[in-house]
Write a structure and sequence with these properties.
heterodimer, A: 410 residues, alpha/beta, eight-stranded mixed β-sheet, 18 strands, 24% strand, globular, B: 328 residues, five-stranded parallel β-sheet, four-stranded parallel β-sheet, 12 helices, EC 2.1.3.2 (chain B), Asp/Orn_carbamoylTrfase (chain B), Aspartate carbamoyltransferase (chain B)
């Protein structure tokens, strides 16, 4: 490792905070941005010729399930907020502190505290202590808290501490043992399914409780038209509610599970085409605040099973940016707006300074070529496991370098 | 209902090789492939009714029946079919508890493969499990029922039964009644009968009707009396009480009152309506004994008989390639 300044020249500099795009270079020194545009190149500086590629703040991925450094580096992710669903669950301050130190220096991990002890949904965990240990938010984990009383106390308590509550939106009674969204595909395949309103039901309850308590509420993944409508209405009433989505839910519908493809078994499950289109519209109109990878790599032991027995989840980190670029090409958002969805909004949610290209900002950057063609290959992924429903898909847009604290990690 | 032109065999009346290695589902079969299998099965009905029920065409081949889910009737049917064709038949009854995890399932598939089975018949409690195994082995695989997904030989034997009793399938109205939600038999039958030109209705309480079932080309009914009105075939399904944690129907007594096939209710169907049931029956719940045992109306024992013939036909057809028969 060297402390020599690093200069990236001949780049498209996109600053999502300023909403600006300029051409030129960027100089990184002592872990921070020292200059942009035209500057005098220090004699000891190393240089990278971007050859017209984009330089933007590093991506911030809220709600990953694994610390997977190679995958994050490959995806241009410089900070990740880790879900509490670990083994053991992040329900104690020592565990939170250990998780916070896990990725440095290449990646900063921001732990999300378990809302309840053991994520069991019954007793509140030591949220205040975990905040002192570095927790940036509180989450209910892979499941929601079924008991409305417990959820109400959680929102009140976390709200008073200034911590956002990240909720899983799925009514457990309606979902039952479902592994797919109710519809033609699930029926043809004979898969246990639940109607899409299982999400809206959970959202409706939690919005009411958030309104009562004044807490900040974030739904990690919202995937249905009806839930989005509830969130729009709540925003109009002034609620501090935000939501995210993964590119998989924007690009795939429930037909992707045809042939019992366990790589397409996700949580929440892939929805029908009408919901998918509603989600795209919600990204465009700003109802959906951020994109996340939902990175949850599952090895063959968990995926090479009959569909219903397989674990849900996908390796999403290294394809997050690539797949999201489809939103720009299809005209749903501009490139600066896309980068805001991938860095500024997640940073704001978890209380970080929004990533920008301002002088003095941390030198956490991604350098990517938005047009470079490649093919996603599950077996060639950097992730701990290559389970992706996009295996074999030709795509455009590739991360060339990920820079964390001024150091090139990819 | 599918277009009759689409159901025509592009080769006219000439038989043509069955172009599938496995029989995992009815989905994906062309109508002429289905009728081809039914025609093949016809000859075995006659053989099975004769004094000598033996044929040596599968001699030297090993048939493994791997049943991960309990079944007596289907296992016996495949065993008899295999033995009548001269195959070496091995039954592997795997206790459900010992093979719960799929990694073991794939291990099992690889073991079966290493033992050089020539054809494998599989039943499993999980939808899609048979396809998973079929992808891992080198020999033909027959699905004997996977979860709620499909049970193709049951649909073929039902179609054969209907065709023999009614002389045709095209244009008939078939009501599939009962626990459609949990039924692989219903799914395979819907695909098979609609492909052959029948009008299919599904009749069930709303809690046992799968979502979007009409997308499979059937008309759903929640009122039993309405659903079977004028039907040529009334196909009853077993109420799968073991899959009903959570209360899909209030009680067996109420189910029988509203959705059980009684002589009075059957009177609403066509006067010569055929009654079918894949078995085993819950007598007094989905079907009254007097209906089940009415030899004029009920084809239930004939279904069992057709089952052996259909399975012999499928084992024969799927192994022709391995037996070096030209063109297969």
């Amino acid at each position: 490792m060297t402390n020599a300044p690093l200069a990236i020249l001949n780049a498209r500099l996109i600053d999502p905070v300023a909403g600006s795009e300029t051409r030129g270079g960027i100089l990184l020194k002592d872990g921070a941005i020292a200059a942009t545009g035209l500057f005098d190149l220090p004699a000891d500086a190393r240089t990278i010729d971007a050859r017209g590629a984009v330089v933007a703040p590093g991506l911030i991925d809220v709600g990953v399930f694994a610390i997977d450094l190679p995958a994050f580096a490959a995806g241009g992710i410089t900070r990740a907020a880790l879900m509490p669903d670990q083994s053991p669950p992040l329900d104690e301050v020592a565990l939170v502190q250990r998780a916070a130190a896990a990725g440095k220096p290449d990646l900063w991990v921001h732990p999300i505290a378990a809302a309840t002890r053991g994520l069991a949904g019954a007793e509140l965990a030591e949220i205040g202590l975990m905040r002192s240990g570095g927790a940036v938010a509180v989450a209910t984990g892979r499941r929601r808290i079924a008991d409305a009383g417990t959820m109400q106390r959680l929102l009140a308590y976390a709200g008073a501490l200034g911590l956002p509550v990240i909720a899983h939106a799925e009514d457990e009674g309606l979902a039952g043992a479902a592994v797919a969204t109710a519809g033609e595909t699930a029926t043809r395949l004979g898969l246990a399914s639940a109607p899409a309103i299982t999400e809206a039901l959970a959202v409706a309850r939690d919005l009411m409780l958030a309104e009562e308590t004044g807490a900040r509420l974030h739904f990690r993944q919202i995937t249905t038209a009806r839930a989005l409508d509830l969130i729009r209405a709540a925003r109009k009433r002034g609620l501090a509610v935000t939501c995210g989505i993964s590119p998989a839910h924007l690009l795939l519908s429930d037909t992707a599970v045809t042939g019992f493809r366990t790589f397409a078994r996700l949580s929440p499950p892939l929805r029908d085409e009408r919901d998918r289109l509603a989600c795209l519209a919600a990204v465009a109109d700003g109802t959906i605040d951020m994109l996340c990878s939902a990175h949850d790599p599952q090895g063959p032991e968990a995926k090479r099973l009959p569909f219903a027995d397989a674990e849900p989840g996908m390796a999403g980190a290294e394809t997050l940016l690539t797949l999201s670029l489809n939103l720009v090409r299809d005209g749903h958002v501009s490139l600066p707006r896309l980068l805001a969805l991938l860095s500024t909004a997640p940073a704001t949610l978890i209380g970080l300074d929004p990533g920008s290209l301002a002088i003095g900002a941390p030198a956490d950057l991604v350098l990517f070529d938005p047009d470079a063609p490649w093919v996603i290959r599950a077996e060639a992924m950097a992730a701990k496991a290559g389970n992706t429903p996009f295996d074999g898909l030709p795509v455009q847009g590739k991360v060339r370098h990920t820079i964390k604290g001024g150091t090139i990690v990819l | 209902m599918s277009d009759p032109a689409a159901r025509a065999n592009p080769l006219g009346d000439r038989p043509h090789p069955f172009p599938h290695r496995d029989l995992v589902s009815i989905y994906g079969l062309q109508p002429w492939e289905i009728t081809g299998l039914l025609d093949e099965a016809e000859q075995w009905v006659e053989v099975n009714r004769g004094r000598t029920k033996h044929d040596e065409r599968l001699r030297g081949l090993t048939l493994i029946n791997a049943f991960f889910e309990n079944s007596t009737r289907t296992l016996l049917s495949f065993e008899i079919a295999g033995k009548r064709l001269g195959a070496d038949v091995v039954n592997m009854a795997v206790a459900q508890s010992s093979v719960k995890k799929g990694e073991t399932l794939i291990d099992t598939a690889m073991t079966l493969n290493a033992m050089r089975a020539d054809v494998i018949v599989i039943r499993h409690e999980s939808s899609g499990a048979v396809q998973l195994i079929a992808d891992k082995v080198d020999c033909p695989v027959l699905n004997a029922g996977d979860g709620r997904h499909e049970h193709p030989t049951q649909a073929l034997l039902d179609a054969l039964t209907i065709r023999r009793r009614k002389g045709r399938i095209e244009g008939l109205t078939v009501a599939i009644c009962g626990d459609v939600l949990h039924s692989r038999v219903a799914r395979s039958n819907i695909l098979c009968l609609t492909a052959l030109g029948a009008e299919v209705r599904v009749v069930a309480p709303p809690t046992l009707l799968p979502p979007a079932i009409e997308a499979m080309g059937v008309t759903p009914f929640t009122d039993f009396d309405e659903g079977i009105a004028g039907a040529d075939v009334v196909m009853m399904l077993r109420l799968q009480r073991e899959r009903m944690a959570g209360g899909f129907v209030p009680s067996p007594r109420e189910y029988h009152m509203l959705h059980g096939l009684t002589p009075e209710r059957l009177a609403r169907a066509a006067p010569d309506a055929l009654v079918m049931h894949p078995g085993p029956m819950n007598r007094g719940i989905e079907i009254a004994s007097s209906v089940a045992d009415d030899l004029q109306r009920s084809a239930i024992t004939e279904q069992v008989e057709m089952g052996v013939a259909v399975r012999m036909a499928c084992l024969d057809v799927l192994t022709r390639g391995r037996r070096g028969i030209e063109g297969w």
